[in-house]
Amino acid sequence: MLSEQMIRIIKSTVPVLEVHGTAITKRFYQMLFTNHPELLNVFNHANQKQGKQPTALANAVYAAAANIDQLENILPAVKQIAHKHRSLGITAEQYPIVGQNLLAAIKDVLGDAATDEIIQAWSEAYGVIAQVFIDVEAEMYQAAELAEGGWAGFRPFTVARKVKESEVITSFYLVPQDGKAISAFLPGQYVTVKVNIAGEEYTHLRQYSLSDKPGQSFYRISVKREEGDEHKPGGKVSQYLHNSINEGDVLELTAPAGDFTLDVEDERPVVLISGGVGLTPMVSMLNTLVEQTPERKVYFIHAARNSQVHAMKQAITELAKQHSQASVHWCYSEPSSEDRMQQSYNKEGFITAEWLKEIVPDQSAAYYFCGPVPFMKQINQALQSLGVPQNDIHYEFFGPKGSLEAEPAEAETV
User: At the top level of its lineage, which domain of life is listed (predicted)?
Assistant: First the structure.
């Protein structure tokens, strides 16, 4: 436990972290990878280059400092991060390495303002916070390994089928190489895929949502090929999976993880909203709902640019025809002339609060959504304007956690 004096010192640094937090975490990652380049086998290099990971860490450090005397307040955030750590194989032995470099980064950025007293307080505070993560993750590792069909670390899976779902999304059906059972999972969870790309010095790990219902002999992931542009690099792993991995090849996976999961006990109507490849966890939820809770009304709403990049449209449409509880609604921001001629969508433009209100008359519904961050900000704002309670709003970031607070003049994209 921290002394009252240490708690007071940590809380006094909160305003400093609010201003300098991202600078500290950027410096931290520079120092960490310089001192321990082997950790580049674990971290997502693209998230580092785009600044997503330093920002997410800065927010986590700020929250921990602000709640240092009541760490139970950040336990939900801890569990979310711990799921990702367990899926990536982060170990207890790595926490001291992180702590050493984080303290060095604080000292480096703040200079003389980081007194010995402040560094000592943060050293003790980091030890307490790290132990919370270590304990939570230890339970998760044990649960993953001891579950029926479970395993520790990475397990080889064979690509049984590779299916092109749209111009940019391809599904991979993965079966265990040893032919044994696989872990059950909750709709909305993900797996980590490990790949070694020829010519690349480090291993690449990526987390992909499971896109089919639980209880089958395979896992399915549906991957968008990220081409990249002048603003961001292309996706090395997604392009590698699309271009180089074929049926019969082997991929290594960790057991399913994640806390963005469907509440199957809830009997109220549920609304599943997705943009682009954000539909992958939603399809898992939809397939589960129609099978397990046939009386529960479900609204499936998907936004895409047009039909060319709209994945799984036919399968979802057929599913809705077979199950009267489900209704599907498509929103295209850039429909083609063929889309318009065939009237293959329900709304042109973007998903709005008014359209949602028209589609979903039931005000007691629970909402789940996923997609690009600008899209999710738009949906979150729409749901808030409709007065949906915060407890009924559930969402998942693909990558490090960010903020859904709307920023002025932010583009609306899917």
Answer: Bacteria
Q: Is 172 a known ligand-binding residue?
A: no
Note if 95 is an active site residue.
Answer: yes
The answer to whether the annotation marks 86 as part of a ligand binding site is no
* Annotated binding-site residue? 332: no
> What CATH number does residue 130 fall under?
1.10.490.10
Domain boundary at 146, 177, 201, which?
Answer: 146
Number of domains in the chain: 3
Residues 293 and 388 occupy one common structural domain: yes
Q: What is the DSSP letter of 45?
A: H
Indicate left, alpha or beta for 266 from its phi (over 0: left) and psi (-120 to 50: alpha): beta
Rounded to whole angstroms, what are the CA distances from 387 to 187, 351, 382, 391? 26, 16, 9, 11
Spot the catalytic one: 137, 165, 226, 396: 137
pTM of the model: 0.91
Q: Which of 29, 62, 95, 299 is catalytic?
A: 95
277 belongs to an annotated ligand binding site: yes
Residue 225 structural domain = 155-253
165-202 pLDDT, tens digit per residue, is: 999 999 999 999 999 999 999 999 999 999 999 999 99
Distance of CA 117 to CAs 4, 5, 107, 123, 404, Å? Answer: 14, 10, 12, 10, 36
Q: What is the dihedral of CA 121, 54, 31, 9, to 10 degrees?
A: -10
Each residue's pLDDT tens digit, 87-141: 999 999 999 999 999 999 999 999 999 999 999 999 999 999 999 999 999 999 9
**Residue pair 164/219 in contact by the 8 Å Cβ criterion:** no
Has 209 been labeled as part of a binding site? yes
Do residues 196 and 230 lie in contact, with contact meaning Cβ atoms separated by under 8 Å?
no
Q: Does 21 share its domain with 130?
A: yes
Q: Are the CB atoms for 393 and 380 separated by under 8 Å? A: yes
What is the DSSP track for 211-269?
Answer: -S-SSSSSEEEEEE-----SSS---HHHHHHHHH--TT-EEEEPPPB-S----TT--S-
Would you say residue 233 has pLDDT above 80?
A: no
